[in-house]
């Protein structure tokens, strides 16, 4: 401890004391002048010493991390021992103060003054007991005993075993079932926070599920048909979670908000233009779509018009870029699925000829990678997805295979697994949140087994785990990284959520604990018993005993005894149209074609002008008067005259 100045600490003078008064009061130090101390200076010096010793202790701990705690403590004691001689702060202070105040006196008098201090006695630990340098120098909580160290090591070993065995991290101990409908659930989407799930199916419906708002009844809070009579093929939340991309069987993708209201609809292109790059949108059925993972408002779609197009929400009237997949011979090929890489710089698409093509997002002309026989030609590759580290691509083929590809060496697959039947063009595959497992579903015929969720280890691609989902095909699967829960869409209209109470967060755990709400008693009464006013006797009308009086009343009633209006004859009057209509043609038919005023013989009507025409020819006869031969009419003979005039050879035959 540093020496205090004479102004800070003063000693007592024995010459000014009264010995008689001291005897009377009972102790020898009475009457002496009390010593004063500068406590602020002492505390400041103590703080500096503690900080210096803490710094040394931390440096020693950093250097000796790999050594046992016992060795660390011993080395700390050895490092602190040279400085332990100055640890008794009170003794140093007392010695320094005595030297300052009694510099003219001898050493014996200063020792006697120290022994005769006035005031409350100091703590016994500071005066009598020696200070343990190990306890004094170590700041903070004490290290755990050896038994606790062994327990910590055992826990670390268990954690290492779990890391080595990723199957133990699969959350499949509990499940809940969400009833979407009766047809296939062909689309699943979960927002980035994991609060809402959206499902779409072959029944054209899109349903919204809120985990925080649902109870144990598991009912959707909204259902709508955004694309009318088109099957829903893909649903995906944006990276901000405020918009949903809806891809259906039509040629126009839609974007809706979290509550289902339409935000934008892509324009339809001109199908009569040959070059698809010159059209403003898709001209054929869509397959799938995907949001950009980094840029807000940008998404991508692929279609049967052999193009992959990128869009912006702010500009629905025209696409942003057009990517045209081609075969090695330069012919068109239809992309069946597409996706962005994790950083958004690459665009991958799988085509019907079995190829996988990857473009740079900013270069639309030629693909950066092109593997022409990734899957069997003529089969629809249903899904391509990138791992979380961005180096591996997984593809789910229509040839019942699942393959892994290294994007850095895109010349052959890393692994391939077969025997995974699929019957849907949107069967999913995905990576686990720790990138150690690859998950996909299998399809089955109706009544021929159960659909499974199959897990493969990424390093060895061994089939390490299976989950029997239901007696229908497994179409969609989604493993959310924040919730650590697996969502599955099936072919019989169910959406299942698998979770573990210890390993999973929020999501399905929120709605499972809520009990189903009971209907109020008042509501049940109004639903079961409906009483109308006229059913009571006091409000019931009296029944007529005689029908004659009722008929007389009806005859006097002008409304009940009103004579029906007769049909209007003629063109119509009083705003009523005639029976034959009011057109000119109907008038002509009625008044001319049907007006038979001439009741004479038709022959006489034709020949009544014959004599006048013969006597005074005017129209036809004058034109042929010079060339027309003279008419000669044959005379009609009777049957007897014809028999006389017959030749003899006819008579002989007869």
Automatic annotation (TrEMBL):
<feature type="compositionally biased region" description="Basic and acidic residues">
    <location>
        <begin position="45"/>
        <end position="78"/>
    </location>
</feature>
<feature type="repeat" description="WD">
    <location>
        <begin position="384"/>
        <end position="408"/>
    </location>
</feature>
<dbReference type="Pfam" id="PF00400">
    <property type="entry name" value="WD40"/>
</dbReference>
<dbReference type="InterPro" id="IPR001680">
    <property type="entry name" value="WD40_rpt"/>
</dbReference>
<feature type="compositionally biased region" description="Acidic residues">
    <location>
        <begin position="147"/>
        <end position="165"/>
    </location>
</feature>
<feature type="region of interest" description="Disordered">
    <location>
        <begin position="1"/>
        <end position="24"/>
    </location>
</feature>
<keyword id="KW-0853">WD repeat</keyword>
<feature type="region of interest" description="Disordered">
    <location>
        <begin position="631"/>
        <end position="654"/>
    </location>
</feature>
<keyword id="KW-0597">Phosphoprotein</keyword>
<dbReference type="InterPro" id="IPR051858">
    <property type="entry name" value="WD_repeat_GAD-1"/>
</dbReference>
<dbReference type="InterPro" id="IPR015943">
    <property type="entry name" value="WD40/YVTN_repeat-like_dom_sf"/>
</dbReference>
<feature type="compositionally biased region" description="Basic and acidic residues">
    <location>
        <begin position="644"/>
        <end position="654"/>
    </location>
</feature>
<protein>
    <recommendedName>
        <fullName>WD repeat-containing protein 70</fullName>
    </recommendedName>
</protein>
<keyword id="KW-0832">Ubl conjugation</keyword>
<feature type="region of interest" description="Disordered">
    <location>
        <begin position="45"/>
        <end position="174"/>
    </location>
</feature>
<comment type="similarity">
    <text>Belongs to the WD repeat GAD-1 family.</text>
</comment>
<dbReference type="InterPro" id="IPR036322">
    <property type="entry name" value="WD40_repeat_dom_sf"/>
</dbReference>
<feature type="compositionally biased region" description="Acidic residues">
    <location>
        <begin position="105"/>
        <end position="117"/>
    </location>
</feature>
<feature type="repeat" description="WD">
    <location>
        <begin position="279"/>
        <end position="321"/>
    </location>
</feature>
<keyword id="KW-0677">Repeat</keyword>
<dbReference type="GO" id="GO:0019899">
    <property type="term" value="F:enzyme binding"/>
</dbReference>
<keyword id="KW-0007">Acetylation</keyword>
<dbReference type="GO" id="GO:0035861">
    <property type="term" value="C:site of double-strand break"/>
</dbReference>
<feature type="repeat" description="WD">
    <location>
        <begin position="178"/>
        <end position="210"/>
    </location>
</feature>
<dbReference type="GO" id="GO:0005634">
    <property type="term" value="C:nucleus"/>
</dbReference>
<keyword id="KW-1017">Isopeptide bond</keyword>
<feature type="compositionally biased region" description="Basic and acidic residues">
    <location>
        <begin position="540"/>
        <end position="565"/>
    </location>
</feature>
<feature type="compositionally biased region" description="Polar residues">
    <location>
        <begin position="7"/>
        <end position="18"/>
    </location>
</feature>
<feature type="region of interest" description="Disordered">
    <location>
        <begin position="540"/>
        <end position="579"/>
    </location>
</feature>
